[in-house]
Amino acid sequence: MSEPIQRIHKRTLTGFSPTEILSIDAAIPLKCREIWKRYGANEFSDVDGFESQFVKHVETTLARSIYNCDNLAAYQATSNSIRDKLIVHWNKTQHLHTAKDVKRIYYLSLEFLMGRALDNALINLEIRDLAATAVDELGFRLEDILEVEPDAALGNGGLGRLAACFIDSLSTGNYPGWGYGLRYQYGIFSQKIVDGYQAEAPDYWLRFSNPWELPRLEIQIPVDFYGYTTTVKDPQTGKSKKQWNGGEQILAVAYDFPIPGYGTSNVNNLRMWSSKPTTEFDFQKFNEGDYQDSLAQQQRAESITAVLYPNDNFYKGKELRLKQQYFWVAASLHDIVRRFIKTKRPWDQFPDQVAIQLNDTHPTLAVVELQRILTDLQGLEWDVAWSIVQRTFGYTNHTVMAEALEKWPVDLFGTLLPRHLEIVYDINLAFLQMVEKKFPNDRGLLSSVSVIEESQPKNIRMANLAIIGSHRVNGVAELHSQLIKQTIFSDFVKVYGSDKFTNVTNGITPRRWLRQANPGLAALIASKLGGYGYLNDLNKLKGLEQFVEDPGFRAEWAAIKTANKTKLAALIASTTGVTVNPNSLFDVQVKRIHEYKRQQLNIFGVIWRYLQLKATPKAERTTKFVPKVSIFGGKAAPGYYTAKTIIKLVNSVGSVVNSDPEIGDLLKVVFIPDYNVSKAEVICPGSDLSEHISTAGTEASGTSNMKFVLNGGLIIGTVDGANVEITREVGEDNIFLFGNLAEDVEDLRHEHHMGRSHIPDSLVQVFDAISSGQFGTPDEFQSLLDGVRFHGDHYLVSDDFESYLEAQKLVDEEFRKKEDWVRKSIISVANMGFFSSDRCIEEYAENIWNIEPLEEKV
Ligand SMILES: *Cc1c(COP(=O)(O)O)cnc(C)c1O
């Protein structure tokens, strides 16, 4: 006999430990359990089933009529139908993880640059064809429906996109893993180009209801700020302990984004926090007649998660940013700790159940917060707590550049988080005592590894705190991981030994960056490799090598590239008004605009090419130069003057070159506005050549280099970041490398500072052309030229310019040999297996997280 259904109303399932869930199973009414088990079977599995779901959602969820159904409604009805499927799998996955009581990985990232969700869900659930047929029968085109979805652009660039690829791979690899982030109301600004200048417009991506998020309005976690600390006596132990009396409280509300894996029914969770005021308004103030002020306070609470900070690889110490960080970290840890407490395990097993990865130093406060929870709130001894903390965290470093390293002024930190500041000092004291014991009287060492920078004003170095609080520190490409050990963290290698430091080279998900972005190429590959299995075993691409000498295969390969270039040409026409010829060489540089990424080197090279073209007699031009389209794209941080100047220069050069009747198709220069994930999905497949030309030693890894090569493009690049390993995999003959090496950068910079700069004649000619006003008012570009000529040329543009031009010359020669170029393209793709983010996740799981995959058996 089953129990009456009321039984389960008394205690919700969330109150049970994993073992209790199994034993309580019997207490749940049989009827209820049967319905639950059958529930998954109600999912649609054919075209008819999908169509009825679609119509149901139009009529009921959207409260519209099929007689009044536009593409927006069709997008929402389609998404809701798919979402229903995901939720069933999501529930089963979460139930399984809880019941099996497995260790979970929590990936803390302040950015998740997800892009669009619908196409990705259709692909991962392997129902794209079904959905395309169904919406067609209902009178829609899937392509149009997909275009309605706004990008979830909750990130700046590579770091945020990496987090997005990683959660896709966590789900695909059946790893029990959650992402934690912030649900910004405004993602990265949308970029307009007005008169050649960047203009920023707000990205209000939640304008229409978002079918991909599940609001968990019942999950509301209070987060404190400000206030003061007191010492209180524990009535039980009689010991004195610290207590934080917060001054301002704000609620964190959870929004869950289900993340489907590919070729599995595993669906993981991405939990994003949104801030809400704790009270509707301040009654005291209301009664005093200060209604305005009580409302203002409410608005302040909501402002915490209002907007993503738009800086990439650059630190800016704004209080609201620190508030965002603590808000997110406190809510996430509260959630993680609550889940652990339910297992009723002793605290020393916390690191056996929980791994937390810090994506850059942004979530480093989690180290301090966990120590506070364990000591102040749970009453653990300091050392016991600290050992748990260290075994729990791993830290991923993303840069060696000083201007990007996070530091917080001690005063600002202590005002916002007074108890945390005390804990930071205690952590640092214990650490420095350990160092002093091991290296007596080494003051230099102590001051360099200290969490506190003894400057005026004093700063907290977040990277030092992250290293001290973690058991593993990793860089994101071989070269970068070597460099952090030799430069910024060399003193920590001295203290801890080098085993604490490791490498996990970045990767990208082939589901989005091949199957979704380039369906034509993905299908051709599938036809040769016996289906789409290679999408979750990317090393299988190696099998393509055997077809390199098949002329029919090469022709198909080339035709797909041309089709993708035609699509890119259409995007260029619609966004810039410039018509380009798809038979030209498409030379692309799209990424955040930054001096270290050296878009200025690229545009100086373009100007040189233009000058050379003009100086060549007309009859000789077509034999000397391959027709080329130089394609730029990327956002500049709104306060980054030099980056914005580079954008203006690109557009100014474009308007001169593109309207020069002598030049025609031989050279076009375009800047595609508002580069984002969905544009990248069109741009990457349409490139012949892409530029990854950072000053050696500055780009930690790069991931768009991987996206371009996976889509059959070749690279011109410096010996930097993951370019090194791409070269190792695809072979030196299939990449155009140039420039000085990382090991020489320091000496070259020194030469510049000593006034021993040499600007090659080619670059002088380029500068003269700019200064003469050939590309508009030279004044506005002056600072760009002066940076190279008079201010030490920090990014070594003058040192690498000639080498860059030579590499470009080689590109022209090779591009003329059409068949050889296609061979290079095929061989490159065949050797890109290493760069799947699935491989990254396996490495993290094995070497850092110590977690195992767990497959749901449906
Ligand atoms: C992949 C990606 C990036 C990272 O590009 P890098 O060239 O590696 O800096 C930035 N933005 C978007 C939209 C991307 O898809």
TrEMBL record:
E.C. no: 2.4.1.1
GO terms under cellular component: cytoplasm
PROSITE patterns listed in its UniProt record: PHOSPHORYLASE
GO biological process, any: glycogen catabolic process
Pfam families in the record: Phosphorylase (PF00343)
Domain of life: Eukaryota
UniProt KW Glycosyltransferase keyword: yes
Entry keyword Transport: no
Positions where N6-(pyridoxal phosphate)lysine occurs in the chain: K707
Cofactor(s) annotated in UniProt: pyridoxal 5'-phosphate
Molecular function GO terms recorded: glycogen phosphorylase activity; pyridoxal phosphate binding
Keywords noted in UniProt: Allosteric enzyme, Carbohydrate metabolism, Glycosyltransferase, Pyridoxal phosphate, Transferase
InterPro entries found in the cross-reference section: Glycg_phsphrylas, Glyco_trans_35, Pyridoxal_P_attach_site
Catalytic activity, reaction form: [(1->4)-alpha-D-glucosyl](n) + phosphate = [(1->4)-alpha-D-glucosyl](n-1) + alpha-D-glucose 1-phosphate
Coiled-coil spans in chain: none
Major enzyme class: transferase
Functional note: Allosteric enzyme that catalyzes the rate-limiting step in glycogen catabolism, the phosphorolytic cleavage of glycogen to produce glucose-1-phosphate, and plays a central role in maintaining cellular and organismal glucose homeostasis.
UniProt family annotation: Belongs to the glycogen phosphorylase family.
Database matches in PANTHER family: GLYCOGEN PHOSPHORYLASE (PTHR11468), GLYCOGEN PHOSPHORYLASE, LIVER FORM (PTHR11468:SF3)
Protein name per the record: Alpha-1,4 glucan phosphorylase
Organism encoding this protein: Kuraishia capsulata CBS 1993
